Each structure stands twice: as structure tokens, then as C-alpha cells.
Amino acid sequence: VSLACKRSVDPATPTELTATAGQTVFSVPRGPSNFVFVDGVFQNPGTAYTWTGTTLTFSEGILVGGKVTVL
């Protein structure tokens, strides 16, 4: 019998990222979520951003220093 351990990300802990100038693509360890915020403002899924695996892509660049939070 073989048992595998898979590291998981606590869903209660947000992932916080800081944008470089005009950044649109972010790698997010937790993967897809419908709760994405930029500088505290909720972003509409499918309109403001899309997911491909664990890659988060915004339709418009985030200003330098902008805070992206994924719950």
C-alpha cells in the first residue's frame, strides 16, 4: 500500500501578490478562485480576470504596487 501526501493551501489564508507596472499575469499556488480583489476592490470573474490552471490573467494591467488578493 502506498500513501501519498499532497500539500494543500489553507483556504482561509489569502494569497497576496504585488504587481509590477502593467502586470496582467500572476502565478497563484492555490489555483482558481471566484474571490479576487485588487487594492481591496472585488473583481468580476470572467470579465476582469480568467484562470488557466494556477495562472491568473487580468484583462487590464494592474498599476505598479497594486495589491492582488485571492481568497
Account of the protein in words:
The protein is mostly beta strands and 71 residues long. It is built from no helices and seven strands. The strands form two sheets. The protein has a four-stranded antiparallel sheet with strand order 1-7-3-4, with no helix packed on it. Strand 5 and strand 6 form a beta hairpin. 10% of the residues are buried. The N terminus is likely disordered.
List the helices and strands and how they pair.
Layout: E1 15-18, E2 23-27, E3 36-38, E4 41-42, E5 49-52, E6 55-62, E7 67-70
Notable characteristics:
four-stranded antiparallel β-sheet, 7 strands, 0% helix, three-stranded antiparallel β-sheet, 71 residues, mainly beta, 42% strand
Quick take:
With 71 residues, the chain is mainly beta.
Mean pLDDT value: 88
Q: Provide the low-confidence segments as ranges.
A: 1-8
Alpha-carbon distance between the termini? Answer: 35 Å
Strand order of the largest sheet: 1-7-3-4
The coarse silhouette is: globular
The count of β-strands is 7
Helix content bin: under 10%
Q: What is the chain-wise order of helices and strands?
A: EEEEEEE
Our estimate of the beta-strand percent is: 35-45%
Instruction: Determine Rg (CA atoms, Å).
Output: 14 Å
Task: Describe the main β-sheet briefly.
Answer: 4 strands, antiparallel
Number of contiguous helices: 0
Structural class estimated from helices and strands:
mainly beta
